[in-house]
Prior knowledge:
The protein is an alpha+beta fold. The chain has 12 helices and 19 strands.
Amino acid sequence: MAKRDESLQPEVARYLCRVRTEGGNYRGYKKDILTENLSERDNTVFVCPRCKGILRELCISTDGEQFCSCCKKEREQTHPNIHVNNMILCFKCYCPLISRGCDWLGTLGDCENHLDTCGYVQEMCKLKCGVVLQRNDHVTHEKENCVQRIVKCEHCKKNFKFCELTEHLDVCPKMKVSCKLKCGVVMCRDKVAQHLGKECGQVEELCKLRCGMKLTRDELRIHVTDNCVQRVVTCEHCDKNFKFCELTEHLDVCPKVEVSCELKCGLVMCRDKVIEHIDRDCKEKEIECPFAKYKCVKLIKRQYLDTHLEEKETEHLKLKLDAIEDIVVKQSELIEKQNKTIADQGLMITKQNETITGQGDMVTKQNETITGQGRMIRKQNETIASQGDMIIKQNRKIETMSQEIGSLNKNAK
């Protein structure tokens, strides 16, 4: 019998069954692998109405519908039909890969086992080179063509993957190479470093100060002290040490270099005094009028500030008075709004008190009504009790009369 869907190998299920469902399971068997076409009656009996494939692991629902187990809906109640399942597994079929040349012929029940070993099934190379090919071709591929096959380096005799061999030959320590400086010596690659470090007279080296220049050892001695842009020099203004390549940039910001005021007031000073000079003393610095908070928006150079204050004294006083008047008006409006809010809240409190008083009266009336209803209920209970006593007395009379009638009937006989 066929295994359950979760045991099917993906490659096998792809050939044997119809397309996957949304949940990832394969559906019923394909029809086109059968040796004979199904009749109309067989189509009704052996074909799943949901996936249109031949029933696989037949299930029957409570209302009599039959379908593949993988076509079963969630929480749907079913039971298997082993007899029909066995009939389906006996159907004659070709190998699904007959188009590739496989001539296998058997039953649906054996087809899955056949596909596990069928040489025409395509699989990924076991050496994981990414090539997909038929099982029949795997041995030749893995021995002769696969880029992941193992080969031996003829120089160091170590094993490598074929795809890594070319890269290895570029660094193989036992491969013979010539000196790259063309001194004529041939040696193993692992001896090159020693040769260049101690023996080769044509060696060029990078400057030890890392300026990027590559020179012979003799040229480097003069270069380091006189020409290298990475050599250390002293600033003549602040007496600090810098790399030669950084000196020009440093001079642009050196705090001890003398510079002119950037506002062109005519004074010369050390760079580290410029900001203090502009903020406190520079006559060309534009500053706000002291009355800016009263809406005097004019910016004026420091040297003209006194003149401005004298010329605009009356205007400044008017601006200050206007500002005070605005404050008074705004405070008056705020007080008026607060008084209105207080009055509105007083009215709301009065209405709430009236509502509470009315509700108290309603509660009193309801209590009086409840008291009256209680009296009526007590009277009704008393009436019911008296009626119960009367019923008991009548029942006793009926029993007495029944006994008397029984006695008269006996005497009459």
